[in-house]
């Protein structure tokens, strides 16, 4: 009957140092073999858990430990101070609580606050048809494609129609088509042979 292998304190320190340098569990095991230690992946994993180094499933698979950002930064939209939680966190939670509002700020210049004011002015409905907007999927920020000026919030259906009306080339071609009033049924049978 074989005895269970127990790593020495020197080996445990080496395991923690190798893993914290950014290596995966497998690489840590290979580096230990180079030093003459014979720890298994399970024992390495246990040591890292007890040391508080290994915290989640991603790290079990070998992902590097990400630095924790806790810096105070100024919001690029409203200029108020906020706690930065990750490297690309440039807008405060009041301006952009979700990723889509970061896009709205960059593309249209409106934050969550301005979005909410527009929604309140429109009484929660589309600016054209007044149908209640489904904020999860059916709301579009309508803007002038030439000047970039934001006009209002529209439902999907109205946003599509406005886009067609703004396409002057399409409208120029549609007018003669509608005026011609062609009825292909009255022109006789179509030969399909």
CATH architecture of the largest domain: 3-Layer(aba) Sandwich
Instruction: Give the name of the CATH superfamily of the largest domain.
Output: His-Me finger endonucleases
User: SS-based structural class?
Assistant: mainly alpha
Can you count the beta strands?
Answer: 4
Strand order of the largest sheet: 1-2
Shape: elongated
- Straight-line distance between termini: 87 Å
What is the helix fraction of residues, given as a range?
Answer: 40-55%
Major sheet details: 2 strands, antiparallel
Please trace the helix and strand order, writing H or E for each element: HHHHEEHHEEHH
Radius of gyration: 31 Å
Name the CATH class of the largest domain: Alpha Beta
State the low-pLDDT regions, or none.
none
Write down the CATH topology of the largest domain: His-Me finger endonuclease fold
Q: Hey, roughly how much beta strand do the residues contain? A: 5-15%
Mean pLDDT: 80
Number of domains: 3
- Helical run tally: 8
């Amino acid at each position: 009957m074989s005895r269970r292998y127990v790593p020495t304190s020197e080996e445990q320190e080496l395991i923690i140092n190798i893993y914290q340098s950014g290596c995966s569990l497998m690489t840590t095991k290979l580096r230990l073999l180079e030093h003459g230690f014979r720890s298994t992946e399970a024992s390495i994993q246990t040591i890292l858990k007890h040391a508080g180094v290994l915290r989640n499933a991603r790290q079990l698979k070998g992902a590097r430990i990400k630095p924790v950002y806790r810096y105070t930064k100024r919001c690029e939209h409203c200029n108020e101070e906020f706690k930065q939680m990750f490297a690309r966190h440039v807008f405060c939670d009041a301006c952009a609580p979700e990723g889509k509002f970061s896009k709205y700020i960059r593309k249209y210049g409106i934050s969550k606050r301005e979005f909410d004011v527009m929604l309140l002015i429109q009484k929660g409905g589309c600016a054209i048809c007044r149908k209640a907007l489904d904020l999860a999927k059916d709301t579009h920020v309508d803007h002038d494609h030439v000047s970039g000026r934001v006009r209002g919030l529209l439902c999907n259906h109205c946003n599509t129609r406005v886009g067609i009306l703004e396409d002057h080339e399409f409208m120029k071609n549609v007018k003669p088509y509608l005026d011609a009033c062609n009825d292909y049924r009255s022109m006789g049978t179509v030969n399909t042979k």
